[in-house]
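User: My collaborator sent over this chain with a note saying "see what the structure looks like." That's all I know about it. Can you take a look?
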Amino acid sequence: MKIIISPAKKMNIDQETYPVQALPKFLSETEKILEWMKQLSYDEAKQLWNCNDKLVNLNFRRVQEMELERNLTPAICSYEGIQYQYMAPLVFTQKALSYVQEHLRIISGFYGLLRPLDGVVPYRLEMQAKLENFTGGKDLYQFWGDKLYRNVVLQDRIILNLASKEYSRCIENYLENDVHFVTCVFGEKQKDKIVQKGTLAKMARGEMVRFLAENEVEDLKTVKSFRGLDYFYSEADSTEWEYVFLKKAVSRQEKH
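Assistant: Without extra context I'll predict from the sequence alone. Here is the result:
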């Protein structure tokens, strides 16, 4: 079973918690993206990143100075988003760390596909970014094509999707009939509809990764026993391809 997750925009440098085990598999492709980014003007970079001037200045400088094989941080330590905070990889046991290294894959617009202990540098590039005058295609979906999917299913034909739609598209678009692709939905019932709230979903995805790692889960059946953040598996709302976890209703007595 392979587990896919999204990266996070905010990144840091941590060269002490865990050692880097390898360079990213698609580093030659990353070099092509970096070469193109280095040629962007400040205004072109600002349009690409669509963020404030402080972040543009930071990332523009990063691109100009970027070296892809020096001063590396393990990917699992580099991302700082909500999902990673709730995953809390910096306090993984050795068994949990070994589990995620084997089973977990981070989809990245810049790096393509990352194992947790692959060495990375801070960058900013969303998968859905539009690429002007880039020889690799009009966007990153076209650039990466089916390479990421082929790598994920090379050894495993079961994929647990904990990524956002922006990133899971890189895998979903190429699914073959013999691949069992299951998406986890963390939501609440509102008027017979399942509503998934962004922040809570990110928190739950992180908790789910931690649950899988701590319990060394190898099968989809055990995934259903997840109870983090008061979510529970809803058999009635789930299908073979979508596992729905609903927030436990809090009674008046529990509130007080």
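A starting point for your reply to your collaborator: Residues 60 and 100 are 32 Å apart (CA to CA).
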